[in-house]
Amino acid sequence: MSYDSMPAGPAEHRCNVLVIGGGPADSTAATLLEEKGHRVTLLEKAHPPRFHIGESLLPANPPLFEKLGVRAEVEAIGMEKWGAEFVSPWHEHRQTFEFADAWDKSMPLAYQVRRSEFDEILIRNAARKGAHVIEGCRVRDVEFLPNDEGAIVRAEHDDGRSETWQCRFLIDASGRDTFLGNRFKGKQRNPRHNSSALYGHFKGAQWNAGKKAGHISLFWFEHGWFWFIPLADGATSVGAVIWPAHLKTRKQPVRDFFLDLIALCPTLAERLKDAELVSDVEATGTFPIPVTAATAPTTCSWGTPMPSSIRSSRPVSCWP
Ligand SMILES: Cc1cc2nc3c(=O)[nH]c(=O)nc-3n(C[C@H](O)[C@H](O)[C@H](O)COP(=O)(O)OP(=O)(O)OC[C@H]3O[C@@H](n4cnc5c(N)ncnc54)[C@H](O)[C@@H]3O)c2cc1C
Q1: Which tens digit of pLDDT belongs to each residue from 151-177?
Q2: 20 to 30 A Cα–Cα from 121, which one of 29, 74, 162, 248?
Q3: Number of domains making up the chain
Q4: How large a percentage of the chain has pLDDT more than 70?
Q5: Are both 31 and 142 inside the same structural domain?
Q6: CA of 279 to the centre of ligand 1 (A)
C-alpha cells in the first residue's frame, strides 16, 4: 500500500516511514529513504548535539558518508584513523594493523569522532534531505494496525504535549533503549558477552607519532582491556571494558576506581602519565541486547541492537 492510498486514520499526522531515534542508524535510514521518495518522520527524544559513547568508526563508514553526502563534514570533525594497535602486557611485541593492508585495499581510512558532533551532522543531513526531524520528542507507545496497515505511534514532546502519527512502516532505531524490544518483551542477554565499561576523556595523553597518531590503541590487562581513542580536538577517550565481577569489587568512587584500573596497566599508564582527566567518569554495560521476538511485517529494528531476524541489515557503526 502506498502512502497516498493509506486510509485516513485516527492519528493527527501521517507519514510513510516513522523512525524512532536520531542516532547514526536512525539518521542514515531516514536520509536514504527520503532520497528514495518516502515521506519520513524521525522522532528524537534528545536535542542534538548530545553526548554519546562510540567514537571509533570503521573503514567501511567513509563510502557510506559519500553516499549520504556528509564525507567532507565528517572529515572536518574527525581524526584520521589508519589502523589499530594492540598492546599486550604479557609480551614486548605490539601488533599494529593498517587498514590499507587488508585484502580489500579500497577502504584504508576511518575516523575517530566526538559522537555529539558526528550524530548532529547525520541528523541535520537527514533534515536537509527532507526528513521531518522532530527533536525533544519521545516515542511512548505504538499500536499496530490490522492487515499490515502500519502503526499508530504516540510521542510526547518535552513540554508534555502528546501527538500521534500513522505510519506505513516503523523503524525502531532507539539504540540501547530498545523501544520495541521492551514493548514485545523480546530482549535476551547473551551470558557469554557480558561486560561493563568505564570511560572518560583526557587532555595531554601521549599519542603515536605521524600517521599512527589517530590509531585506536587497545591494551589488554588482567581484568579486561582498554581503548585509547585520539580525537581531533586533542582529547583522548579512554575506556576500560571489564568483567562485571570485577566491577562488583569496587569500594571507591567510580573516578578513583577507573584511575586505579589504569594504574594496573603500565603500558597505558605510561601514555597517560602527563595527562589530565577532563571529564566525569561514566560506567555502563557493554553487552549486546539481541531482540528476538517477532515484531510486525511493517516494522524493522535498526542499528543497535541487531535483531536476529534481520541479520543482513548493516549497522552504520560497529563495535569494537
Ligand atoms: C561503552 C561503549 C563503547 C562503544 N564504543 C564504540 C566505538 O568505539 N565505535 C563504534 O562504532 N561503536 C561503539 N559503541 C557502540 C555504539 O555506541 C553504537 O553502536 C551506536 O551508538 C549505535 O547507534 P544507533 O543509531 O543504533 O543508536 P544510538 O546512537 O544509541 O541512537 C539511538 C537514539 O534513539 C534515541 N531514542 C531512544 N529511545 C527513544 C524514544 N523512545 N523516542 C525517541 N528517541 C529515542 C536516543 O536518544 C538516541 O539518540 C560503543 C558502545 C558502548 C556501550
Answers
A1: 999 999 999 999 999 999 999 999 999
A2: 162
A3: 2
A4: 87
A5: yes
A6: 20
What mean pLDDT is predicted for residues 263-283? 97
Ligand 1 pocket, Cβ-based, cut-off 6 angstroms: 20-26, 43-46, 52-57, 138-139, 173-177, 179, 197, 239, 284, 286, 303-304, 317-319
Give the domain CATH number at 259. 3.30.9.100
Residue 234 zone, left/alpha/beta (φ > 0; ψ -120 to 50; rest): left
| Residue pLDDT, tens place only, 173-185 | 999 999 998 888 8
Q: Does the pTM of the predicted model rise above 0.85? A: yes
Domain encompassing residue 299: 13-53+115-188+290-310
Nearest CA to ligand 1 atom 21: 54
**Does 279 map to a domain?**
yes
Domain match, 134 and 168 both = yes
Q: Which of 84, 59, 63, 64 is nearest to 24 (CA)?
A: 64
Residues ≥6 apart with Cβ < 8 Å to 27? 42, 119, 122, 123, 125, 126
- Give the helix ranges, DSSP H, for 166-243: 179-183
Q: What spacing in Å lies between the alpha carbon of 52 and ligand 1's midpoint?
A: 7
